[in-house]
């Protein structure tokens, strides 16, 4: 994974690098067989959570004692359906021993599969993508780059992890970090998942853009769905008889320095040594923008094992390749000055109408609604994973949650039990929230935490 963060900018970019029953019918990727199959699988295995319809129910119904009692029993039953997945989220699923595996893809995630924000005209992500495509289409190069926009986000663990040399015990494989349809199928965590697939098909120069999915923290720069672009170029020694590794690195640097200047303008750049499992001579490219150094992308010379798995490289055609990857949200947040990653998913015309194809303009906030803070304290259960808490809050609150922050933590001196207190910041980007609806969401979150095994305090 080129980046660990789904979000972005500011000076924390570098620190975020290295590398995400009711709404099932909302899948917008209706025409895709993959999305349909995923929907069926999740219907069979995932919890039937409370979707948008349930969230719009009247507060009077939720506030009645009998209704809350019924809801409590229902919530515990629903979470019990995911209990195995949650309790074992610190583990990596074994395709050879699936056991009673339960998918951890919730309805709130499922409904975003196939949204393809990067393909929506006049959307900030689409504007950034097209600017990059224009740059590569205009390169004076012996090869033409081919663009892939609509490859399925549903991939095998082989393609997502093994083919790009992600270690078997890497944290990114855990249920706490990745959305699994089944033990051998995931929602891609990076666009690198398509490298070997395209190389085997004979593609020698290509860009892949798509939505990626990771379970992650909740704040203004992290979201469980984000968009990446992957670039690969293969060099054929027959056409470059004196080819050296240094020449490949020089071409990589020249190409990417030109790209960031096409995006940011005539900015100062610098290279920083980095590590990625699928490249050597690995680097990050930073630009000096708005008075600070910002990490933009990760890159390097492709590992020989990846080329060999595609029938290229040593012992075959002796090809050498470079590759890079970057997040589109982080670029768009910096360039358009968008402060909250949730806004990319807004359907509010006050947001969408501000952007126009081919133009990078500063976003003008149309409002700032008041926050509503709620705390939740509990003794943590065995095999606790913090991402599980974030997922429960996200599933219940959707885009009404702005952030979740750990504000207190201690271990009982006698029982050795750990207590945590999280502060949840509820804030809509489009309207003021009522205390009643926030109380309702908080009630559901508390019930899920209790069913998960957390002892509420």
Textual characterization of the structure:
It contains 14 helices and 14 strands. Helix 4 (65-87) crosses helix 14 (435-452), helix 6 crosses helix 11 and helix 13 (386-397) runs antiparallel to helix 14. It is globular, with a radius of gyration of 23 Å. The longest helix is centred in the first third of the chain and has 23 residues, at 65-87. By secondary structure, it is of the alpha+beta class. Strand 12 and strand 13 form a beta hairpin. A seven-stranded mixed beta sheet has the order 1-5-6-10-9-8-7. Strands 12-13-11-14 form a four-stranded antiparallel beta sheet.
Descriptive key words:
4-stranded antiparallel beta sheet; globular; 7-stranded mixed beta sheet; 457 residues; single chain; 14 helices
In short:
The protein is α+β, with helices and mostly antiparallel strands and 457 residues long.
